[in-house]
Design a protein that fits this description.
The chain contains 18 helices and no strands. Helix 2 packs across helix 4 and helix 11 packs parallel to helix 12. The chain is rod-shaped, with a radius of gyration of 63 Å. It starts with a helix and ends in a 17-residue tail after the last helix. Keywords: Coiled coil.
Amino acid sequence: MVTTSVKAVIDSNRSLLIRNIIPCEELYDNLVKLNARATGAEQTEKLLELIVVRGPTALNGFCDALQLSGHNFLAELLRDEVSGGTSDTVQWEDLTRSVPGLDKAVNKQQREEVTKVVNAKIRDSVQKELLRRTALDKEKVIESKQRQLEDSWRFTELLREKDSLIETLEGGLEQAVTDARSHGVNVQELKTFVDQTKLKHKKDLEKQMKYNTANEKSLQRLTERQYETEATLDYVTEQLTSYLREGEEHNDLVREETISPGLTMTSVDRAKDTLKKTLQRIQELESTKRAHDALVEERHYMSAQLGVDITANVRTALQQYVVKQDGTVTSLREEVTKLNSEVLALEEAASEHATSKTETVHMLESTVNDLKNRVDSKNAIVAELRADLSSKEARLAALLAENKLLQKKLAGVDHANANALRASIEGPSMHNGVGPLSSRESPEAIGRLSPARVQATTLPKPTPRITPHNSLALQISALPPVSPKQKRKELRQQRKQQQQQLQQQRLRPDVFPSGQEQGPLSEPKTGNGIDSTYVGLQRLKGFNAETKRNFSNAGWNHWPGAAPRSDYLRK
């Protein structure tokens, strides 16, 4: 819904808004960004058209967005225009007063267009004059505010980087603790595995040693039995040879003797004895055969166990087996020694790893604690700066209220002076016959009047209403004239003071304890932005030294949320 007042305010200030609004992220966070337009001026123009269509609510939101994004001057101008109306602007009657016929030659729409153009020109000229007179102080205010905004942005980025670093370190610390725990579990598992391996190898070694001992004993028994068997075989061979030799000799004796009736007892006994010995030898041979069969059976078993042919030499196979078992025992002992060295190396590596992980965890904890302490100190500084900013805002609000009261008083005084001046002009002129013209007099009567009467009928121009935007220009224009020589002298003094203030600012060591530059929203200690204008303002009625001191203490040269360098301060 289009509102007439909103449309009038936007149309009258359209060129000013298009020139001075700076499209930025803070502004677009509160409004809708128009990507269809190529330049910032086109986007701003399209935005103003949408605000006109949507009415007062959209205008209030637009003013809030300007205030939040730093365009305080434009926001206050629009709010003042909406609240105060257009009573302080030039009307069509003022333009056509000297040319009465012009009112009939143009229509209503043309009147409105001409009025808008004239009001815009007047506003631009007043603003240019105001900014031209206070250009140096404004430039200093802008530079101070720009530096504060840059410091605030840098400090915000630094805090964001520190927060991300703290999060990264905390994540790394958690990961390191998790890794340390997992490595501790792995170390415990390795220790358990090492103990189990030790026990297993010890048992295997004991078992193998038992087997080796049993094999050595069995081999020794077999060797002894072999020796005994060979000795028995040699003895049996010798006995058989001797028996055969004795049998042959006996047979020879029997053939030589003849059997006769005179056989003696001695020969019978000798025959019995020989038979008895022969039977004993036969029994010994049978026992020897049984022992030989058992030995052959045992030889077959040993050959089968050793994996050799039955006809091979058992002694050589046993010797090779013993050598092989000795090599196996030696390799097992070397493997046990190697495993023991590996176990010791694993234990040392586990202890070193646990020590390094503990040192890393301690170092990360100390780093995180240090960063937390630094962040706490920075937060404390930010809290102090915010408290200082709140106090400055409160003082600024009080001073603005006082300024409004002073403006109302000045407006009342100006109105009273205008009425008194009008009364002083109208009263004596009526008595002298040269008073103001009456509205009932005809044009012919006006033509017959004397020049003095016509000049007396011209009333003084009404005093325009003083607003926060034109009060300074009107007050400066009301000052008494100053000679050019005096102006040059005052200008040289002001420049000298500004150079001294700038030099003091450069030499001022405002740094934090950590060595960084001064943080955001810091208040400069020199260079008030309105000192140069107080030279003339002190002469005005109702503006004393105490009011100047209140304005200076409020810090008008760095109000909160002020915009950075913008185009509306250019000439």
